[in-house]
Write a structure and sequence with these properties.
The structure holds two protein chains of two kinds.
Chain A (H helix, E strand, L loop, with lengths): L2 H9 L3 H23 L2 H18 L9 H20 L19 H16 L3 H12 L4 H8 L3 H20 L1
Chain B lengths: L2 H17 L7 H10 L15 H10 L5 H24 L14 E6 L2 E6 L5 E5 L16
Antiparallel strand pairs in B: 1-2, 2-3
The chains are: A mainly alpha, B alpha+beta.
Chain lengths: 172, 144
């Protein structure tokens, strides 16, 4: 069954249909949450909260074709809510890719990823949410700005500045 | 392509390399919690009943309130109200006598006669005397 069919069934309370939707999305949601929060435990909490909310509010979803975008927005908002509630700096954790094969030039690629992780660590959670929603999950910038409640022009500046600062080292 | 543009072009792949992995192991916990969570009824969502244009208007109207500005205005209003209350309370003024009491006299009945008392001087004089018993003094509107 395609995604729209699963969504319609899940809206009527079908747990199995919702489980299939979760299976298709949870890896991306977890990745986005870990990017924003930089903490495995907090990311798990945020993704759980987002998916529980998605299940509860699914009957009110008017545009099933935008289910993925809706789920990404719930996740980003759950992450930022967690940050506001906890109001502490997240723990730095080592980020390793568990599944993808390594590139041929391992040391340079490893250094590049380390630099990017370090650069992301210097952003605040709201800016990391912009990076996660747009660059990792592929949401349009206008939708990212609307989701996070920030002016469209405003959130481009820190990304551009950060990219400019780090591009030299990453592509030097 | 500039280095910044190249960086931005490569960023999705870099981020996927860094963060994207297999499904996390807490998937089962999520589904267990979902099974215990009831869904909202469709009719409880206002979006089901109202046109999208109205929903958008409502959401725009729910813009975050400028609490700091509201707080400052509230403090200012309180300050002004306090000053006004202090001013009014500090100078009690008795209005000038008007109407029949304008002349400052007090009239009363004493041993069957009508007597007026000048409060300022303290002197009294009988205005209606005689053998008859006079009671219930009243000033006319012009003070006489």
């Amino acid at each position: 069954m395609d995604q729209l069919g699963l969504i319609e069934q899940a809206k009527r309370g079908d747990h199995d249909a919702f489980a299939q939707l979760v299976d298709a999305a949870v890896a991306r949601l977890d990745a986005a949450a870990r990017l924003i929060l930089r903490d495995h435990e907090l990311a798990r909490d945020a993704v759980q909260e987002a998916l529980i909310r998605a299940w509860r509010d699914l009957p009110g979803l008017r545009e099933p074709e935008r289910f993925d975008a809706w789920l990404y927005r719930l996740t980003a908002n759950a992450c930022l809510d967690l940050v506001r509630r906890r109001r502490r700096r997240p723990m730095e954790v080592e980020l390793t890719n568990l599944g993808a094969p390594g590139p041929a030039d391992i040391p340079a690629e490893f250094a590049r990823r380390e630099l990017l992780a370090e650069a992301l660590g210097r952003l605040d959670p709201a800016h990391r949410a912009v990076v996660a929603l747009h660059y990792l999950l592929g949401l349009p910038l206008r939708e990212v700005a609307s989701t996070l409640g920030i002016p469209l022009g405003d959130r481009k500046i820190p990304i551009a500045l950060r990219a400019r600062n780090d591009a030299g080292r990453l592509h030097g | 392509m500039t280095s910044v543009r190249r960086f931005e072009h490569d960023l999705p792949e870099l981020l996927a390399d860094l963060y994207l992995g297999p499904a996390p192991d807490y998937r089962h916990d999520i589904l267990q919690r979902v099974a215990r969570t009831p869904q909202r009824r469709a009719w409880t969502f206002p979006e089901r009943w109202l046109p999208m244009g109205v929903i958008t208007l409502i959401r725009q109207a729910r813009a975050p309130l400028p609490w700091r500005t509201i707080g400052l205005l509230a403090v200012l209003a309180l300050l002004i109200a306090s000053l006004v209350a202090i001013y009014i309370g500090s100078s009690p003024r008795v209005p000038d006598a008007f109407g029949p009491a304008r002349n400052g006299l007090l009239a009363y009945e004493e041993t069957g006669d009508i007597v007026v008392l000048d409060e300022a001087s303290g002197s009294t004089r009988v205005v209606v005397g005689g053998a008859t018993v006079d009671t219930a003094p009243a000033f006319s509107r012009d003070g006489t």
